[in-house]
């Protein structure tokens, strides 16, 4: 669970994910292919058509996504992909 409170004034289509370990894993990969965990998670989440936008907060160890209300909810698939990035404990904390 994040150290900071979850924002209460989220848009109607917002979902907050807990990403335990994000603070301790600032970089994924190595050498020329290293990328921050924050950027990797963000890029993966926004690559899903049902996700309009995403913000990742490494200090709170959360990711907040805005879902497209006109599309089928594919959030479960996106959560699995974040788990595959090395964050197996990812879970949905709050749906607005």
Task: Tell me what you see in this structure.
InterPro entries: HMA_dom_sf. This is HMA domain-containing protein. One of its GO terms (molecular function) is metal ion binding. This protein is an alpha+beta fold and 96 residues long. It has helices at residues 37-46, 75-84, and strands spanning 14-18, 27-28, 35-36, 51-57, 62-67, 91-95. The chain has a single domain (14-95), classed as 2-Layer Sandwich (Alpha-Beta Plaits), CATH 3.30.70.100. A hairpin with a 6-residue loop joins strand 2 (27-28) and strand 3. The protein is globular and about 40 Å long.
In brief:
InterPro entries: HMA_dom_sf (IPR036163). This protein is α+β, with helices and mostly antiparallel strands. The chain is built from 2 helices and 6 strands.
Strands, helices and their partners?
Blueprint: E1 14-18, E2 27-28, E3 35-36, H1 37-46, E4 51-57, E5 62-67, H2 75-84, E6 91-95
Antiparallel strand pairs: 1-5, 1-6, 2-3, 4-5
Second rung of CATH, namely the architecture: 2-Layer Sandwich
The number of helical segments is 2
What is the helix/strand order?
EEEHEEHE
Please give the share of residues in helix: 10-25%
